[in-house]
TrEMBL record:
Keywords per UniProt: Membrane, Transmembrane, Transmembrane helix
Name of this protein: Putative transporter R00093
Membrane topology per record: Multi-pass membrane protein
Matches recorded under Gene3D superfamilies: Amino acid/polyamine transporter I
Domain named Amino acid permease/ SLC12A: residues: 31-436
Record-linked Pfam families: AA_permease (PF00324)
A GO cellular component annotation in the UniProt record: membrane
Amino acid sequence: MAEQTMGKPQAQRIQLLKVLGPAHVWALGVGIVLVGEFMGWNYAVGKGGAYGALIACWVIGLLYTCVAMIDSEITSTVAAAGGQYAQAKHTIGPLMAFNVGLYLVLAYTMLEAGDIQVAGQLIQIGIGELGSNVNWEPFTILCLAILAWLNYRGVFMTLTVNFVITAAAFLTIIILFVGLQPWNPRAIMHHADLLTDLPYGWLGVIAAFHFGIWFYLGIEGTCQAAEEVRSPGRALPLGTMTGIITLLIAAGLTWYVSVGMLPWEYLGWDLTLAPLFDTARVSGSKFLHVALFVGTLFSAIASANGCINDAARAWFSMGRDRYLPQWFGAVHPRYRTPYRSIVFLIPIAAIFALWVPLAQIITFSILSGLLNYTFMPINMWNFRNKWPIGSIRRGFEHPFHPLPAAVLLSLCIVTFFAVYLGYGRQLLAMMAFYIIASLWFHFRRYRYVRRGDQFTMAWPKPLGY
């Protein structure tokens, strides 16, 4: 119990800075996710064909629209670092909060690992096209080190950079779409020749849900900025909802141009690193070739940058609440960042980026994210039942409750089955890991938790208590 007496009172007064607005929230959410349009989603084509990937894109888009609606209400009301982890503390309890915190950290850290792996390999390809042969690993480590330094120095600078490079990456998708002349589809694109029926039937479509998640995975990361926004009731819903709209548009454009230029058998191949970049290369336009190289690289860097931000804040929140050693709950006295959590998680991302195949890294991230989404409907029902509309001041009230929660839970169950079809062993291994972690928390770590310190919201007692 010695850890309960650790921590100096003056250290507790150092808080994260409230400096962010809606544009930063948009940049955090879209910046993390936009890389999914540039790489990773194409594995869905290998599962269900081109049309199967499109169906998965829109069905999973509905899943994430429900996620965005639920998050916008709860996070704008529970405005604390940690996102869904902070929500779970207030609405369900410590064991659920601990697991949700782990879901978030692993989802973002694995996504970060995939991002920097792609960034390093893309730089290798670019230099190779100039006539030189280099290894991608040093560039991966260099990208990670620069982004870690940026996050260490401050959240405002980090997310301002993210806003610029995310907007630039999104613009390259628009440029590619226009450059391929969609008003004259047979001039360059050949959908009629390349598109086929569902090669593996409707079971293949369901299997495609697994990687359809990659179009949108990470938009829930906007919640991690809740403690650092100036106006949670405005910035979080506005940034999150405009973010999901941006991603839905980008996903549709990405599918359209890719399947109009590349055979589905090639798109679904493991060695297709960046489908949009490959699409630009076969277009014959040097300008599009260079633009999509830059866009793909920017998207990977922006995503990794946002993931470092989000993973560190979830880990920091768990340390501050003593779910993890309190050492992780420190805030830098000058930069006001969770610097210890940032530094601790970087080597983990580097290990996975250097030695684990991309498809497996993506699956690790997807499974952790999917477990988090499964928690969210339960969280929403608890939140509305314990504190009905009118009992507390909400930053935002999402419409149609409980329909979004029911749709989200149903789609999560179907997507778990989709993951099982292709990665059953990895799914079971991840579930075993979380069960072991839960047992460790219950028997070893819970003794250090101060339950009364976690309820930071000045709310009345829940209905029925």
